[in-house]
Design a protein that fits this description.
The chain has 163 residues and is an all-alpha fold. Helices cover 82% and strands 0% of the residues. The chain has one domain: MetI-like (MetI-like fold, Orthogonal Bundle), CATH 1.10.3720. The chain is elongated and about 65 Å long.
Length: 163
Amino acid sequence: AAHKPKVYRVMLPVLDLMQTLPTFVYLIPVLTLFGLGNAPGLIVTIIFVIPTAVRLTHLGVVSVPKSIVEAGEAFGATKSQLLWKVELPSALPTIMAGLTQSIMLSLSMVVFAALIGAGGLGTEINRALGSRRIDLGLEAGLAIVVLAIVLDRMTRIAVGGKK
């Protein structure tokens, strides 16, 4: 989509819709098709995080300086080689920001996914809410925060960033 503005213009309203619709709205058809459990939780989470990943990947690729692309062309790189060996490596910091944001958004969905039977730490938070146990809610909430921090550090290390 980064090299085809018309494709991105078509994708943009779909991404806007995915990002602005309340989660309960797209949950209705997902629950109708898949019932309760892990599958609808995963599908709703994917719908929730895809716009961020796509937008930041697009931003990263279109932000690659023209001089870098021209240098790749001067060395005889094909369009495919330009994308995979020049543009994507140059766009990697922005793409990784999109990945990190997607991971954080996914973690923000754990409580919601637990409401539809996906289980996990979200179930503990819902149980704490139902029983008014602040200690259980705090424990599960802190576990989610620790998980977010660990996943953030792992993605940074994976691309050779700060350890």
